[in-house]
């Protein structure tokens, strides 16, 4: 058996071991979350939960696996291997922040989509004669997942001694988006100075629904541009993968020489810049 084949097997075994450890940690975290007995506390904790450790572990495992794979390709070029090692370290440091930011944005989008239904439930309960904390507690199990976690956090804050206005202020600080700010203002005014809070919630629900419908229409109109950005950005890497499978001797110098690595780095940077540029062009801010 050749030394290169032994190194390849060792790298594959190490990558599989790292992936197994990451999966085990993720399953253990989910088991701890499922073991919580207090439903209110569990839903309140979900208001701030992002898979930070899982993302960091996954990116670290991916960076190590990529380095081990690169070590096989760049076995005869120590300089190129050093440059690739530095790139893997940079990716392991930068990618978790980008991924977590994207996850946070997606969570905000889901909460915005769930907010109108929650406001309608609160408005109906307040019309029935309940106070705002009673209405939240009454509908807590009926709320969708993300907005229910936030309202559970509001109830937990009130049980800790905070006023309902302060609890809504904390809600606005956790999610600094326009829809949440409007809910916070309406709730504080309704609780502190009186007024028809049910009608305020109903009007806010209709307003948020109209905004979401308008944004969906804009998103449908810009779908073609966003798909072009994705396809044109991924096309060079797809061609590189095909050439690696068909004519490996043409592609290997890109990974085994310093000039080749610089070329790959410049190509990646230019493709990322083009993707961001096209997305900025087709993005419509409301």
SSE topology:
Layout (H helix, E strand, L loop, with lengths): L2 H32 L4 H7 L6 H22 L4 H50 L4 H7 L6 H15 L4 H11 L3 H16 L3 H25 L1 H24 L1 H9 L1 H25 L4
Overall helicity: over 70%
List SSEs in N-to-C order: HHHHHHHHHHHH
Strand content: under 5%
Gyration radius (Cα, Å) is 26 Å
Please tally the β strands and state the result.
Answer: 0
Which stretches are poorly predicted, pLDDT < 50 over at least 5 residues? Answer: none
What's the overall average pLDDT, rounded?
78
Q: What is the count of helical runs?
A: 12
The computed structural class is: mainly alpha
Describe the structure.
With 286 residues, the chain is mainly alpha-helical. Among the domains are: 113-215, no CATH class; 222-286. The chain has helices spanning 3-34, 39-45, 52-73, 78-127, 132-138, 145-159, 164-174, 178-193, 197-221, 223-246, 248-256, 258-282. The longest helix has 50 residues, at 78-127.
């Amino acid at each position: 058996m050749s030394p290169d084949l032994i190194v390849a097997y060792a790298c594959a075994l190490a990558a599989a071991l790292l992936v197994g450890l990451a999966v085990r940690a993720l399953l253990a975290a989910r088991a701890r979350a499922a073991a919580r007995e207090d439903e209110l506390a569990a839903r309140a904790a979900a208001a701030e939960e992002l898979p930070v450790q899982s993302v960091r572990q996954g990116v670290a495992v991916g960076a190590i696996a990529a380095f081990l794979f690169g070590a096989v390709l760049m076995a005869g070029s120590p300089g190129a291997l050093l440059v690739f090692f530095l790139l893997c370290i940079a990716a392991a440091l930068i990618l978790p922040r980008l991924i977590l930011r994207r996850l946070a944005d997606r969570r905000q989008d889901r909460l915005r989509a769930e907010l109108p239904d929650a406001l309608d439930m609160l408005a109906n309960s307040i019309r029935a004669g309940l106070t705002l904390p009673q209405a939240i507690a009454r509908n807590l199990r009926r709320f969708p997942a993300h907005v229910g976690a936030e309202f559970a956090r509001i109830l937990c804050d009130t049980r800790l001694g905070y006023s309902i206005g302060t609890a809504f202020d904390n809600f606005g600080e956790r999610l600094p988006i326009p829809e949440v700010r409007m809910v916070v203002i309406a709730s504080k005014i309704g609780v502190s100075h009186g007024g028809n809070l049910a009608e305020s919630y109903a009007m806010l629900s209709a307003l948020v629904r109209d905004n979401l419908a308008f944004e969906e229409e804009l998103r449908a109109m810009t779908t073609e541009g966003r798909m072009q950005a994705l396809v044109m950005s991924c096309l060079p890497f797809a061609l590189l993968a095909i050439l690696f499978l068909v004519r490996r001797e043409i592609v290997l110098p890109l990974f085994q020489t310093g000039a080749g690595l610089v070329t790959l780095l410049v190509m990646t940077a230019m493709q990322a810049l083009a993707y961001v540029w096209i997305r900025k062009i087709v993005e419509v801010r409301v």
